[in-house]
Amino acid sequence: MAFEDILVERRGRILCVTLNRPERMNAIGALTSKELLEVLTLYRDDPELWVMILTGAGEKAFCSGMYVTEAARKTPEKGKTEGFTIFKPWTDRMQSIRKPFICAVNGHCVGGGWHLVADSDIVIAAENAQFLDTHVNIGLINGVESAGLAWKMPLGIVMRMVVEGRHFRITAKEAYQWGLVSEVLPQSALMDKAWEIANHIAEEAAPLAVQGSKKAILGALNRGPSEGIAYAWSVLSDIEESEDTKEGFRSFVEKRKPRFKSR
Fold first, then answer.
1. How large is the angle between the packed helices 225-235 and 207-221, nearest 10 degrees?
2. Between β-strands 108-110 and 61-63, what pairing exists: parallel, antiparallel or unpaired?
3. Sequence-distant contacts of 232-236: CB under 8 A, at least 24 apart
4. What is the pLDDT of residue 255?
5. What CA–CA distances, in Å, run from 120 to 91, 124, 138?
6. Residue 23 gets which letter from DSSP?
7. Residue 34, SS3?
8. pLDDT tens digits, one per residue of 58-91
9. What's the rounded Cα separation, in Å, for the pair 196 and 194?
10. Model pTM?
11. In the CATH hierarchy, which fold is given to the domain comprising 206-254?
12. Which one, out of 81, 125, 165, 262, has a CA that is 20 to 30 A from the CA of 187?
């Protein structure tokens, strides 16, 4: 799979996508967005792909958000930047996929880069990672990305990052303390850990059960405590007659490793 702005590596059932514009701090432009949409569609539609890892090239930045220089060139005098329209298709696609995403934040994560963090299911970070936002510093609203992060960490911290702009940032350690990331590692160990987690999912977890669990959890969160728990109960029956569920029980009784097939 040949792309210009991203690198794509496939290892069995795992797809690793790396933003590959280190000279631009892995900013996301029109071409990057097009390629992200393409690879996310591939991930969604290929039944043999069970896990995706997302990261950035280089040691300085995971993603600096919108490629502002490009957006400014395409913005007419009367207003409306093109940046929002290029982000929406791939972020909508990512949010619609039930398969799991692992995000490995290897440096600065700024503005639009929050989409990748907010919409991932597991987020790990290198010790040098920092999270900040500059929307208000260039006259833009941060509404979508910050709403996504507010599901994962205290609202007051998200709000301060947004309204204080570039002057307030949180470290990887603080992101861990506030629940945004589940583990902080030396940068040299970050991708090994991402692959390790992905392998645990791809090699030992039933894919339909993983996807059903994600559906139940996110669906419950969107419905509030009482209705959400009722919704989660309703999802349990989705795969109870699947081949994988039967295989899981059978392999447990036979004391062997299950052979899941996503059926």
1. 160
2. parallel
3. 236/212
4. 85
5. 11, 10, 26
6. G
7. helix
8. 989 999 988 776 766 665 555 555 556 889 999 9
9. 5
10. 0.92
11. Lyase 2-enoyl-coa Hydratase; Chain  A, domain 2 (1.10.12)
12. 165
